[in-house]
TrEMBL record:
<dbReference type="Pfam" id="PF00749">
    <property type="entry name" value="tRNA-synt_1c"/>
</dbReference>
<dbReference type="InterPro" id="IPR020058">
    <property type="entry name" value="Glu/Gln-tRNA-synth_Ib_cat-dom"/>
</dbReference>
<dbReference type="GO" id="GO:0016874">
    <property type="term" value="F:ligase activity"/>
</dbReference>
<protein>
    <submittedName>
        <fullName>tRNA glutamyl-Q(34) synthetase GluQRS</fullName>
        <ecNumber>6.1.1.-</ecNumber>
    </submittedName>
</protein>
<keyword id="KW-0067">ATP-binding</keyword>
<keyword id="KW-0436">Ligase</keyword>
<keyword id="KW-0862">Zinc</keyword>
<feature type="domain" description="Glutamyl/glutaminyl-tRNA synthetase class Ib catalytic">
    <location>
        <begin position="7"/>
        <end position="279"/>
    </location>
</feature>
<dbReference type="InterPro" id="IPR001412">
    <property type="entry name" value="aa-tRNA-synth_I_CS"/>
</dbReference>
<keyword id="KW-0479">Metal-binding</keyword>
<keyword id="KW-0030">Aminoacyl-tRNA synthetase</keyword>
<dbReference type="InterPro" id="IPR000924">
    <property type="entry name" value="Glu/Gln-tRNA-synth"/>
</dbReference>
<keyword id="KW-0648">Protein biosynthesis</keyword>
<keyword id="KW-0547">Nucleotide-binding</keyword>
<comment type="similarity">
    <text>Belongs to the class-I aminoacyl-tRNA synthetase family.</text>
</comment>
<dbReference type="InterPro" id="IPR049940">
    <property type="entry name" value="GluQ/Sye"/>
</dbReference>
<dbReference type="InterPro" id="IPR014729">
    <property type="entry name" value="Rossmann-like_a/b/a_fold"/>
</dbReference>
Length: 288
């Protein structure tokens, strides 16, 4: 049997907080229970917000928690050519099209909301003529490239994936993917040849990830990932969705909301055991 491989993949656009600690500990615990290995991946495709000092802080915080991982660590910003090649495969299938709509235009013409609550793109630029597309691309208009989800689903048909829960050792349950509820998602931007959706499915396949542990807030996004895996001929891992750590406002902890970082807690005298206790992992034994 293939050795179970899992991954923890933070973005270095800020310091890790307790929610990240929960996710990391859940991943390393699942790897131990499966007699597998947990990998660390640095998801830094947002080169404007991701900083080397945040990457270094990730290594330090995880080591402080007693976690270790195999080297070398995959760094996404070193793999843009690989992601661009995957996007070109989709383009060759006539599944990517340029979109020139601004956020304001999308919000004004939205046809509802996606599972994250964002305005659902109405498909405006899907209907542009080739001449219009070429003219606007040559003019240098701001552009992003979207997946024609309806056409993609015509190629794949019905999609399913396996979810394990409530624990990683439970029997997998088959679930139907519903990518259509996301509309035509962005897979490339003018200044970045990839997106979160595209890069992670390519990386999971290249690293041989067998089990993906992620928070329940990313459960719906799995629909898009399963669709991309099928289109690109990539394997679909098992998925396990762990609980979220909520703040006093009832919302999940987030860097964007200034949730207190692990570094701040350490400076206040917290120990790794305190962090583990706070997020529901009482053992402070080193996890490999």
């Amino acid at each position: 049997m293939t050795q179970p491989l899992l991954r923890f993949a933070p973005s270095p656009n800020g310091f890790l907080h307790l929610g990240h600690a929960l996710s990391a500990l859940a991943t390393w615990q699942a790897a131990a229970q499966l007699d597998g290995t947990a990998l660390l991946r640095i998801e830094d495709i947002d080169t404007a917000r991701c900083k080397p000092e945040f990457t270094q802080a990730i290594f330090e915080d995880l080591d402080w928690l007693g976690l270790s991982w195999p080297e070398p660590v995959l760094v996404q910003s070193e793999r843009f050519d690989i992601y661009a090649a995957a996007a070109n495969r989709l383009r060759d299938m006539d599944l990517l099209y340029p979109c020139f709509c601004s956020r304001a235009e999308i919000a004004e013409n939205a046809i509802g909301t996606d599972p994250d609550g964002a305005p659902l793109y109405p498909g405006t630029c899907r209907h542009l003529s080739n001449a219009d597309r070429i003219e606007r691309l040559e003019r240098g208009d701001p552009v992003q490239f979207r997946l024609d989800t309806e056409r993609a689903l015509e190629r794949t048909g019905m999609l399913t994936f396996s979810v394990i829960g409530p624990t990683i050792l439970d029997r997998p349950q088959i679930r139907y993917a519903r990518p259509g509820r996301w509309g035509d998602v962005v897979l490339q931007r003018k200044d970045t040849p990839t997106s979160y959706h595209l890069s992670i499915v390519v990386d999971d396949a290249d690293q041989g990830i067998t089990h993906v542990t992620r928070g329940r807030d990313l459960e719906a996004a799995t629909d898009i990932h399963v669709l991309l895996q099928m289109l690109l001929g990539l394997p679909t891992p098992y998925y396990h969705f762990h609980r979220l750590l909520l703040g006093d406002d009832g919302e999940k902890l987030a860097k964007s909301k200034g949730s207190q970082s692990l570094r701040d807690l350490r400076a206040q005298g917290w120990t790794p055991e305190d962090v583990r206790r706070a997020v529901g992992f009482l053992s402070n034994s080193r996890s490999d």
